[in-house]
């Protein structure tokens, strides 16, 4: 493994932590604005990565989807993962702000990822590509911005999918409840235990191409052109 590869892996790890931890904190922060102090009292609004790490979503999934393929020389890996979900008392949020508030909590993490992806693309387009004359700090910073762009686009796309247990499904659930379409909400509630199976199926089958890869490529092209 070359020195550049080591820098790229370090940048990818840092970018992933910034993306997934901020994503979860935003859920808790918006819920807090609607009177839910659960995440705050449990210390989950802290940026300390140790309290947010999920062994499967923060370690195993990124290894499978990005780091191992990268070390094996594959070009098809993509940086993806998630942190431990921040606890939200939905009843408190709905009591204080209605279903609109619950939908805002659901979309808060995605909004954070979209903001970071957009900011990263603006910075990246304004920076000259690193050369041999540039120092390690500049090269690492450039790689970090690249990885921040990539991972935040991936997270936004994945979470917009109506996968049970993920943000897109939560948003649709509260939207359905707002308009009293309880069958939709009941469907996602019953399907939530199988959300992880859906994720694995998407990741290991050709379904990831139309559902994930193409949307990611489209968003990246939009941000970089």
Automatic annotation (TrEMBL):
Gene Ontology cellular-component annotations: plasma membrane
Keyword Protease: yes
Keyword Cell membrane part of the UniProt annotation: yes
Places the protein is found: Cell membrane
Superkingdom of origin organism: Bacteria
InterPro entries linked to this entry: Metallopeptidase_M50B, Rip2-like
UniProt keyword list: Cell membrane, Hydrolase, Membrane, Metal-binding, Metalloprotease, Protease, Transmembrane, Transmembrane helix, Zinc
Primary location recorded for the protein, binned into one broad class: membrane
Membrane topology note: Multi-pass membrane protein
Biological-process GO terms, alphabetical: proteolysis
GO MF, one annotated term: metal ion binding
Residue intervals passing through the bilayer: 12-35, 56-83, 103-127, 139-161, 194-216
Cofactor(s) listed in the protein's UniProt record: Zn(2+)
Family statement: Belongs to the peptidase M50B family.
Listed name of the protein: Site-2 protease family protein
Species of origin: Sulfuricurvum kujiense
């Amino acid at each position: 493994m070359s020195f550049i590869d080591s820098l790229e892996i370090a940048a990818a790890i840092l970018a992933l932590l910034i993306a997934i931890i901020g994503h979860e904190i935003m859920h808790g922060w918006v819920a807090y604005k609607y009177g839910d102090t659960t995440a705050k009292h449990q210390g989950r609004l802290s940026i300390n990565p140790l309290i947010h790490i999920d062994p499967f979503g923060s370690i195993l999934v990124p290894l499978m989807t990005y780091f191992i393929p990268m070390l094996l020389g594959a070009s098809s890996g993509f940086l993806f993962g998630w942190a431990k979900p921040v606890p939200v008392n939905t009843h408190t949020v709905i009591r204080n702000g209605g279903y609109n508030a619950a939908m805002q909590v659901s979309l808060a993490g995605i909004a954070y990822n979209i903001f970071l992806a957009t900011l990263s693309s603006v910075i990246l387009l304004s920076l000259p590509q690193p050369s041999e004359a540039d120092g390690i700090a500049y090269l690492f910073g450039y790689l970090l911005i690249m990885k921040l762009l990539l991972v935040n686009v991936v997270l936004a796309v994945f979470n917009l999918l109506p996968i049970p247990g993920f943000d897109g499904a939560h948003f649709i659930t509260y939207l359905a409840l707002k308009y009293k379409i309880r069958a939709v909400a009941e469907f996602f509630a019953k399907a939530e235990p199988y959300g992880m199976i859906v994720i694995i199926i998407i990741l290991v089958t050709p379904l990831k191409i139309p559902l994930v890869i193409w949307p990611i490529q489209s968003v990246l092209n939009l941000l970089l052109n």
